[in-house]
Amino acid sequence: MTIMQTVYWLIASVGNIIALYLVNEHGSPFATGLFIFTLLYTLVGFYDLYFSHHNLNRLYPVVAYIRYFLESYRTEIQQYFIANDTEENPFNREQRTLVYQRAKNIRDTIAFGTQRNLLEENYLSLWHSMAPQTVSDDAKSVIIGGPDCLQPYTASYLNISAMSFGSLSSNAIEALNLGAKKAGCYHNSGEGGVSSYHLKHGGDLVWQVGTGLFGCRDATGKFSPTLFAKTATLPAVKMIEIKLSQGAKPGHGGVLPKAKITQEIANIRHISMDEDCISPATNPECSTPIKLLNFVQQLRELSEGKPVGFKLCIGNPAEFLSLCKAMLETGITPDFITVDGAEGGTGAAPVEFSNRLGMMCLEGLYIVHNALIGVGLRDKIRIIASGKTASSFDLLTKIAVGADCVNAARTMMMAIGCVQSRHCNNNLCPTGIATQDPARAKAVDVLQKSDRVKNFHHNTLKNFYELVGSIGLDDPDKLMPHMIKRRTSSGLLMPVSTLVPPLKANVLLDSMVSEQTLPEPWCEWWVQSNAESFYVYDHKIVHAPVLLATEANAPEINTP
């Protein structure tokens, strides 16, 4: 027997006898309480020993529950008492504190120097200029809308990323949308469709049409042009985003747990309340590159010329080049492309998908940006970055690598009170944000939290423009990838680069009509890509480049 099994039998026998004796002799409250304790211990322990399905309960009757209790608070214990300011994931204490400070409009400075290891391999930084500039007001917005767009939209550099009603509570959606209106940015609806809470306060909306076609599907689950047009033409809806994949779970449809599906959500999405709402991994209207672009054109016409684009996480670069070939073949281009990163968040995803699939945001941006340059379409298509943006530096790096503007989700949740408890998938969010429990949702004060969204947006952009100016630029559009410095294993600071060389303007396009040789691995990916199909068999082995000592042999960098 284990020690605790021995203890159980002692309490069940000797303990009960002594407690019963004390009750009979003295009848004191202590004696009565002791007898109740030993009796309950005996009953619970007997169940554990002979009926429990858990090994721990059978070997350590009763006391095993102490482990389960402590384990249920492991995340909170680690967050509050163990982890230091820079080691938690996905957002460490330093990042969360910065968001809270800027959202509350209080002091966001630090004292006594950085806690970061500036010599850490892959540490990113900037080189400042001795001639800092000021970013003009004319350079503080981005116009989204290609040549076929009739209603172009002027966007902020920082916006609210996709979070559905269903994943978030009604009060959280209202706070985010009202905050977007106050901040002057857009609010992405998420794939759950446009609800009354998205429309109540009149904030600018990007309607995300997910693989489940929620909000524009008929009774059989197929796309309904009539239902789509009804919502897409609303004044509050400024752009349409077709979701192909999500960075936190690429290749896997969205998941809304059954516990969070109310009758209201079921009505909005046209789904059942009796099972988890799982979107298909593939959008049924976008099974090939050409079908996707035809769908883009259809939605643009149905929305009366509003900007239409799509969101994806980059995997095999050859598959994105298939999209580029389809654009050249059909003459149809999206107004924007949202690039999600593997580091992005979600309310629920399989561990393997979140941990092991997809490119990170900066890598995906680099591929998309250079591919569009190579086919001569970069000036027609805006790129939106989505994935883990907590600070102005995070915002700047994405703009520098190729994005035109950035979406943030989890930090916007933090602005309205999220504490990273990671209970988004069980309806037990302690702050009332990622839940459909009405009692919990009431904790979100819409007016107060919308101000915090506005503050976080304003203060992050303020520091972003100051950072841009500190490196000698007067316009974020002048940021380039080589301006982000990365610490190498040798300890040197080198420009941010990947195994993939940058492309010159139109080089992929020119290679289709001439003998021009493309750099590797672009050449292999371009040959493999096919406008008729997304799938490309991954057989290209990308070799690590040799670090060259002389600047003359360094890879060429695109300049404005």
TrEMBL record:
Tell me the ranges covered by the Glutamate synthase domain, including all copies.
155-473
UniProt keyword Transmembrane present = yes
Instruction: Give TM segment ranges.
Output: 7-24, 30-50
Keyword annotations for this protein, in alphabetical order, are: Membrane, Transmembrane, Transmembrane helix
Name the Gene Ontology molecular function terms of this record: glutamate synthase activity
Which GO terms of type biological process are on file? glutamate biosynthetic process
Q: Which InterPro entries match?
A: Aldolase_TIM, GltB, Glu_synthdom
Under the heading SUPFAM superfamilies, the entry gives: FMN-linked oxidoreductases
Alphabetical list of Gene3D superfamilies matching this protein: Aldolase class I
Query: Which PANTHER family does the record associate with it?
Result: ARCHAEAL-TYPE GLUTAMATE SYNTHASE [NADPH]
What family does this belong to?
Belongs to the glutamate synthase family.
Descriptive protein name:
Glutamate synthase (Ferredoxin-dependent)
Q: Which organism is it from?
A: Oleispira antarctica RB-8
